[in-house]
Amino acid sequence: MIEVLKQMVEALENDHIVEWPAMNRPKKVEEKRQEAIQAGKKAIKELESQEPLAWMDADGNVSDNNDHKCFPIPLYTHSPQRTWVGLTDEEKNDCLVSADPCETLAEPEARQLIEDVEQALKGKNT
Hints:
Strand content: 5-15%
Number of domains: 2
Structural class: mainly alpha
Helix content: 40-55%
Order of helices and strands: HHEEEHH
Number of strands: 3
């Protein structure tokens, strides 16, 4: 998988045979090409930072040990992307009561704090 991504990024970076020469290429096409290059590089970096799940040889045989001489191709997996699930109003109230049992925080400010924290977490996890 990493090798395929590397080939794709290399092809995008070195595209010599395109419909338009680079200088005359429509701006939107070039922007999309650059986005694809950056996305590919990011995916490669993420995959390379993972430990292989298993190893494969050139014939497609798979092993879970790391015998790199017989099984030189590392196989990786991604954790499934989960859909963001926000807090319910009841859970937000529970958080507010837990943080401030005497309810000394002003209601609007406390609600805004909960919303801000939830948005920050959503931005980091989606």
